[in-house]
Design a protein that fits this description.
The complex is a heterodimer of chains A (300) and B (447). With 300 residues, chain A is mainly alpha-helical. Helix content of chain A is 71%, strand content 3%. Chain A contains 12 helices and 2 strands; from the N terminus they run αααααββααααααα. Chain A has a two-stranded antiparallel sheet. The mean pLDDT of chain A is 90. Chain B has 447 residues and is an alpha/beta fold. In chain B, strand 3, helix 4 and strand 4 form a beta-alpha-beta unit. Chain B starts with a helix and ends with a strand. The chains are: A mainly alpha (300), B alpha/beta (447).
Chain lengths: 300, 447
């Protein structure tokens, strides 16, 4: 193999395309990581079942479309609601007994993830499923020399919307104030008549719902099968941990990771880019384990 | 909450202990029956055969079908009277898509279950993991999937196409019909890379050139960086060795990127009927697949096979595809091997060894190698190569239509023989007793 096979020389137009692709990758990773930012970053629950919430979102979309004929866009909010409800059940039935034993949540949620994968496999079988997306999301948008699939533009837009909504919910609403106070000091919050167990349940449900809607969106771009969650959970954890568990940390990390991956893989190749990116993250976390943005307040 | 290093180590230890408690088979070594002169098939027992596939994990997408079609074939043989009156008893294990589990389960099948033969594996990785165990016990493995070759072992029979049979016809066909420039995309493991070495040799002969080559991780589903380079290089067609769930994402994103299959088709070696159903018919239409078998093949044996399989209790997947058919052939060919071994052993079941089944499947008693006729094999007549124990078959090129089924656009006029060292002539020639090297020595068990 010569150097030339390995190294793609710089050319302006494809390089700019690579930057755009970086944004698209960043938005996909961000959407996948958003729910985890809430559940792990804010609540401190090491949720190994996060990928399976994404998978459930995709399967709910498939069921709604395949058996009930729902249009794809309508499936997105419905799968948010259903997965949020499943998340709420998981929190009420399992996670809430483990808040004082955070590391046990790792094992418990891993068990939950296995239950989800095997249930889906038992009910629908292991083969990949097909979801139809609307015509306008199957096209490519041409701007000069740039060819951008409309599905990727849609996911990018949705990522911004979801981040905006989450930010407004956490930092601009009464519920957000309750969430942040309960996460800081549940006893103190309780003395201000905040029902902390309700806040925990709803926060977890919201995080799970975000995973569900991301699964719905990915169903138009990626493959739907019972083990698909594994493909997202690694990147999601990297984004959240490197971002310091903060909403804007995740936003920044996803952006940097997406661009770095896309540019590396433009100059070299996909495999090597992945390798370099993971090595850089390990080195970064060695010297800055608290992540890009240090949480500005005391946490539980 | 903060995760300190100490807490994490503690947590990990708790986790490991939990896993160990839940899965004792991970660490309790087999101390079943001692190895000895016990027969592999008892006079008054069944013929036990191991089925080593994954029913769980990412490989289960394909391997679950392999298990189902094997059980279907065994049911069929048993209903027809078994092997010389003896019933076949399948021992199904789940390899959980984990290479280590393949090795463990293989040891279990040989030592504890004492099966006479094992059928299994969809990937080269798992085949290469279990073969040392098979060879250690001088046992027998049937591998039903296309693979790269470059191996010469005396304990394996393959019923799928080798790299030299697989892309041999496809590359000249694509160069002739679409043009010389090709972009290679594959999954990142041994089979795509070795397969592409063959592709490059055939490409050179056909006057084509490689304008780019990329590999994505197994299970990866992000192809936009690759498509960016493809747009830049403007190949005439794409050669894909992307497998499994990634393959579906590749085809869907091809369509979403605005590429057209009539301008720049994807020629694949593994995109079968399962995949075209899951990617949507629009995404599959117009692309090419080289395989010895397609569900839509028009012949009475295949029509029977498709009907009987899909209406049986095993046909829940809804399609038949090349890998299932090759698995089915493996069971039928194995049955013929056992019949010959029984004759070789003078009717004494207990004298049959796994290795004997393999040896008599080649040239034996002047009868030539075992094979299947047009009436037995859905893909048409096939037979085992008496030297390297791979299969002679007719490669076919299919183009996917708008219904997810393939139309045959070219069928090899003659059977093409397997040649595991086709692009490594300096390594030697694979014969029944080992690899005959150019210096005259014979190397056994070349993995």
């Amino acid at each position: 193999m010569s150097v030339h096979d390995f190294w793609t020389p710089f050319a302006l137009e494809p390089f700019i395309s690579a930057l755009i692709i970086g944004l698209s990758l960043a938005s996909i990773w961000l959407v996948a990581a958003l729910g985890l930012t809430i559940i792990y970053g804010t609540m401190g629950v090491i949720n190994m079942a996060h990928g399976e919430f994404i998978m459930l979102g995709a399967y709910i979309t498939w069921v709604l479309q395949y058996f009930l004929g729902f249009p794809w866009l309508l499936c997105l909010p419905i799968s948010f609601v259903i997965v949020a409800f499943i998340g709420w059940l998981v929190e009420r039935g399992l996670i809430r007994h483990l808040y004082d034993r955070p590391l046990d949540t790792l094992l418990a949620t891993w068990g939950v993830s296995l239950v989800f994968i095997q249930s889906i496999r038992l009910i629908f079988g292991g083969e990949p499923q097909y979801i139809d997306t609307p015509e306008f999301l199957s096209n490519v948008v041409q701007i000069g020399f740039l060819n951008i699939p409309s599905m990727r533009i849609f996911i990018f837009g949705m990522a911004l919307v979801l981040v905006g909504l989450t930010w407004a919910l956490l930092y601009k609403s009464n519920f957000g104030i309750q969430v942040r106070s309960v996460m800081q000091n549940p006893q103190m919050a309780a003395s201000f008549v905040i029902n902390s167990s309700r806040v925990y349940g709803l926060t977890f449900a919201y995080g799970a719902g975000l995973a569900g809607i991301s699964g719905s969106m990915f169903s138009g771009l990626k493959t739907i099968f019972p083990d698909m969650g594994l493909g997202y959970v690694v990147e999601a954890f990297l984004v959240v941990v490197t971002g310091g568990g903060e909403l804007f940390g995740s936003l920044a990390t996803a952006g940097i990771m997406g661009e770095m991956f896309s540019v590396f893989s433009y100059f070299t190749n996909d495999t090597f880019a992945r390798f370099v990116l993971f090595v850089l993250i390990v080195i970064f976390l060695r010297f800055r384990p608290q992540g890009i943005f240090t949480p500005s307040m005391a946490r539980r | 909450m903060r995760v300190s290093r100490r807490n994490f180590v503690k947590g990990a230890a708790v986790g490991a202990a939990g896993v160990a408690a839940a899965f004792p088979q991970l660490y309790i070594k087999d101390h079943g029956q001692a190895w000895g002169a016990k027969p592999w098939i008892y006079k008054d027992g069944n013929v036990k055969v191991g089925l080593l596939w994954s029913q769980t994990g990412n490989l289960s997408v394909v391997e679950n079908d392999s298990t189902q079609v094997s059980l279907f074939a065994i049911d069929k043989l048993n209903a027809e009277g078994g092997i010389a009156g003896k019933q076949i008893e399948p021992v199904v294990v789940d390899a959980k898509s984990d290479i280590k589990v393949y090795s463990e389960k293989m040891t279990q099948l040989i030592l504890r279950d004492r099966v006479a033969t094992v059928h299994g594996s969809y990937t080269s990785a798992s085949r290469r993991a279990v073969m040392p165990i098979i060879m250690k016990w001088n046992h027998l493995y049937y591998y039903p999937t296309c693979y790269e070759g470059r191996e010469c072992m005396q304990n394996i029979i393959n019923t799928g196409p080798l790299a030299n049979q697989h892309s041999y016809d496809l590359v000249p066909y694509m160069v002739k019909n679409f043009g010389p420039k090709v972009y290679l995309v594959g999954s990142n493991y041994i089979w795509p890379k070795e397969s592409n070495k063959n592709v490059k040799v055939w490409l050179e002969r056909a006057g084509g050139e490689v304008v780019g080559e990329d590999y994505v991780p197994l299970g990866g589903s992000e192809f936009s960086p690759v498509f960016n380079k493809i747009r830049q290089q403007e190949p005439d067609w794409i050669m894909s060795t992307v497998v499994g769930d990634s393959d579906i994402a590749l085809h869907r994103q091809f369509l979403q990127e605005g590429f057209k299959s009539d301008k720049m088709p994807i020629a694949a070696l593994t995109t079968g009927e399962i995949e075209t159903a899951a990617m949507g018919h629009e995404a599959g239409a117009g692309h090419f697949l080289s395989a010895p078998y397609f569900q839509d093949l028009k012949n009475p044996t295949n029509e029977w096979f498709v009907d009987a399989y899909l209406s049986s209790q095993y046909g829940g997947g809804g399609v038949t595809h090349y890998n299932m058919e090759e698995t089915y052939l493996g069971i039928l060919i194995w049955k013929k091997g056992v019949e010959r071994a029984l004759e070789e052993a003078g009717g004494d079941w207990e004298a049959i060894t796994p290795r004997m089944i393999r040896d008599v499947s080649g040239n034996w008693n002047g009868q030539g190698p075992v094979g299947l006729s047009d009436e037995e094999s859905p893909e048409g007549k096939v037979w085992i190569d008496p030297d390297n124990f791979n299969i002679w078959l007719k490669p076919k090129i299919g183009q996917c239509g708008s219904n997810g089924q393939f139309t045959i656009v070219k069928e090899a006029p003659e059977h093409v023989g397997p040649d595991p060292f086709a692009i490594y002539p300096e390594r030697g020639v694979c014969k029944a007793d080992g690899l005959h090297k150019p210096d005259g020595t014979i190397q056994k068990d070349v993995l």
